[in-house]
Amino acid sequence: MTPDVVIIGGGLAGLSCANTLTQQGITNNILEADDEVGGRARTDRLDGFLLDRGFQVFSTAYPEAKRILKYDALKLHTFYPGALVRFDGQFHRIADPYRHPLHALQSVLNPIGTMKDKVRVATWRHQVLKDPLQELPSRPETSTIDHLQSMGFSQSIINRFFRPFLGGVFMDQELTTSSRMADFVFRMFASGDSALPEEGMGALAQQLAHNLQSEQIQLRKKVVKIQGTTVTLESGETLPARRVVIATERSAATQLAPEVPPHLFRGTTCLYFHAPEPPLNGPHLILNGETGGVINSLYLPTEVTRSYAPPGQHLISITTNETSLSDKMTIKEAVQKNLIEWFGTQVHTWQHIKTYFIQSAQSVQTPPFYPGTIASSKIRDGLYICGDHRSTATIDGAIGSGRRTAEEIASEIMN
Predict the structure, then answer these.
(1) pLDDT tens-place string over residues 177-227
(2) What's the CA gap between 19 and 26, in Å, rounded?
(3) Run means of pLDDT, 10 residues per run, the chain, 415 residues
(4) Closest CA to 388 of 15, 73, 22
(5) For the chain, what are the domain ranges?
(6) Distance between CA 180 and CA 123 in Å, rounded?
(7) Are 245 and 17 in contact (CB under 8 A)?
(8) Burial class of residue 355, CB neighbours in 10 A (0-12, 13-18, 19+)
């Protein structure tokens, strides 16, 4: 039977689109080129370790995620609301003053920013929380770095905290990303918990997939051509549909539909090691506030939830925005050197598990940037597009884009 909609891509956007269409009684199939759904939000299982494909965390404040995901079933485990910053050979705590006022008071005199900076953080928090979320995209826009400077933050807190923190979130050390994205991300961190599902970040996609009938999802089905509303697979097989949704990464979407303009992406590299003992205790995000070294951030998934490693082992995840080196050993050795500077000779007992080079990890979101305001998902009659490149380059952006595309299709069908 010819489905109402064929969705190309089984990432979060495609799965969200399929869930919404199914709820509306609109038949749909997902064609996924890989052997599992999830796209960039997948978790690989290797020798008892859970390896998320790149550093990702889930914010419980994501509005679109609240619509569609069952948080209890995800068994979320939360990070400490703040961070440890490596600076001048020590780790300094930055705490959320509203959730850990005593820790925040203790950190007032640390070298990660001035006393006035701590007050300005609270002021920024108030500014991003006071207005309805939907008004953030219409705020005056500049770059993140200009936004921080206009709020009066000192260079010390910008370089030692915001550059590794927001620079890691956006994969943009120069902080050229839109101030609207900075406000959105800061609001998510301020109003919710950062968390990991017990079964890894891939559990988000798995939950959405479980809402669908098994026959709706077809794996290892790579689409190479779209003609009208008929798709052609790499195998040569053709599949007709009444409507087609492209829910792939932007580069793949451009190949399938030349009407979709190319888009710039940022890359990242994530390395995993396992160790017999954790180098630090606690569910902290650890940021590099120093000028040297290739590490941007580090955390221990097993300090957030023990499910990420076999008994007796601890998992360490390191992120670097270095993607220009093609030799994995070169990056691994540079990271190991940086780790020894931080943690000493214990690093020699750590075992490298895997390195992920993610060239198209996140859309470039420099001004002008209008998250959530793209009017239509339609490319042409019968062809639509969704993905985080159509919204905020976040998990929430992907889920929301899929929902809006499905609602647009449902509106057309029902009218």
Answers:
(1) 999 999 999 999 999 999 999 999 999 999 999 999 999 999 999 999 999
(2) 10
(3) 92 98 96 95 96 94 95 97 94 84 72 88 92 85 97 95 94 95 94 96 97 95 95 95 95 91 88 96 96 93 98 96 62 93 96 91 86 76 94 93 96 87
(4) 15
(5) 5-41+201-263+366-414, 44-77+265-363, 80-192
(6) 16
(7) yes
(8) middle
pTM exceeding the 0.85 threshold for the entire prediction: yes
What amino acid occupies position 62?
Answer: Y
Q: Contact at 8 Å (CB) between 403 and 68?
A: yes
- AA letter at 393: A
Fold of 44-77+265-363: Polyamine Oxidase; Chain A, domain 2 (3.90.660)
Percentage of the chain beyond pLDDT 90 is 76
Q: pLDDT for 303-349, tens place per residue?
A: 999 999 999 999 999 999 766 555 555 889 899 999 999 999 999 99
CATH architecture of the domain with range 5-41+201-263+366-414: 3-Layer(bba) Sandwich (3.50)
Characterize the bridge pairing of strands 28-31 and 217-218. parallel
Distance between CA 337 and CA 34 in Å, rounded? 35
Any residues with CB less than 8 A from the CB of 168 and at least 6 apart, and which? 55, 287, 296, 297, 319, 321
SS (H, E, C) the chain: CCCCEEEECCCHHHHHHHHHHHHCCCCEEEECCCCCCCCCCCEEEECCEEEECCCCCEECCCHHHHHHCCHHHHCEEECCCEEEEEECCEEEEEECCCCCHHHHHHCCCCCCCCHHHHHHHHHHHHHHHHCCHHHHHHCCCCEHHHHHHHCCCCHHHHHHHHHHHHHHHHCCCCCCCEHHHHHHHHHHHHHCCEEEECCCCHHHHHHHHHCCCHHHEECCCCEEEEECCEEEECCCCEEECCEEEECCCHHHHHHHCCCCCCCCEEEEEEEEEEECCCCCCCCCEEEECCCCCCCCEEECHHHHCHHHCCCCCEEEEEEECCCCCCCHHHHHHHHHHHHHHHHHHHHHHCEEEEEEEEEEEEECCCCCCCCCCCCCCEEECCEEECCHHHCCCCHHHHHHHHHHHHHHHHHHHHC
Q: Residue 361 has which token pair?
A: 């990890």
> What is the rounded CA–CA span in Å between residue 299 and residue 406?
36
